[in-house]
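Before the break, one more example. Copy the sequence into your notebook; we will annotate it together after we see the structure.
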Amino acid sequence: MIDNLTSLLGRPRFLEHLDEMVRHSAEFKAPLGLLIVDVRRFRKINRNFGHETGDQVLQGVASVLKQVARSGDSIGRIGDDQFALLLDRVANIGHAQLAAMKMQRLLDLPISTPEREVRCAVTIGISLCPTHANTSGKLLLSAEQALAEAKQMEQPIGFAVPLEEEGISSDWDIEVSLGDSILNSELRAYYQPKIDLASGRPLGAEALVRWQNASRGLLSPAVFLPVAEAIGFLKPLTIWMLNSALRHSAEWSQRWGKLSVSVNIPPHILAQPDFVDLVMSAEKLWMREHVDLCLEVLEQSLVADVDVAFEKLSALREQGVKIAIDDFGTGYSSLSYFRDIPTDELKIDQSFIRGLRQDRANIHIVSLIMDIAHRFGLQVVAEGVEDRKVAAYLKHQGCDQAQGYYFARPMPADEFASWLKTYQPDPQLFPVASADN
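Here is what the structure looks like once it is written out:
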């Protein structure tokens, strides 16, 4: 059941586990990612250096997979020179791609054996459940096909074909009309308040994009952002969001003092050479004295090239822009560079917050994140707060800020401006603040 050489799951046990996880994914709507990892030219390594060195190379690759895997992920050796990494609860194909990129980056360094250092490259095939397959057999087959195509095209990473692409994509109309959404004034900026848990006062809001599509109605970003990424529309969309958020926030009421506005930055945009100039141009155009800009970047955004990402974020912080790490706790970053991370706040992923009352493990995770963040002088923001008990618990534990349906749902700009004028803190949770108002 366990592979003797690498101490990973052997092929039969891994396939059993894969079948179990796919059934779990279907029952609990928890997407999975499967990466098949093939060691390139492994037979040549065995032939030139001997089987003992070859075994040590396989152990080195297994060690790299263990570094990439998170708690809850599974690793197996499924062939002589093939491994599999099963990612639990992936957000999208980009999430799985970042894991693959980190794996390849770690393998840029040669693997040390007693006799010599051996450079080892891998090809990776990626498939998601249910995007590319809805059974364990089909998921494995689609990842293997993606791997085979990548090897044939001499590409480091291959991606499975989504189920709907076997015929006509069900999103063809989105792809056709999304490019004109800005020109046709169809995009909408919604705002969800961020609340200070010490006082109950609003500190600002996170800007969230919506699309008022002519045929489908109001669409959430989950529907059209994958299409935007596929057609190269993320950059104009991000520029539009930056300008809209700064323009709206400049008009917010002064009742609560200086407020911040947070804008989400996709990993692809952070990686672009002109990212810093893009942000500073928007801020220069709309900045007002009573508004603070905060950029929310995913934890996974820092994986591909840590030094370059840190340099860009540091440059923006020097210009007065705040940085928040979004969905903290779900990515692949290492605590080894935590002390140098250029950020002002950590946002705990809502999957941990919503599970506080059901799973004690989530309580430990949230407490650990808050403790580490506060030790480094960072603010902690809890996402997905949906009831008073969770809000009260977070307040008691020293969490700094919170957002979620308990306080307010995301709302259009004009509604948020009105909400700021009428909002009253919950007197049971914030008795002092309520007395002041």
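Residues 165-169 have pLDDT under 50 and may be disordered. DSSP finds 16 helices and 17 strands in the chain. Try to locate both features in your own notes.
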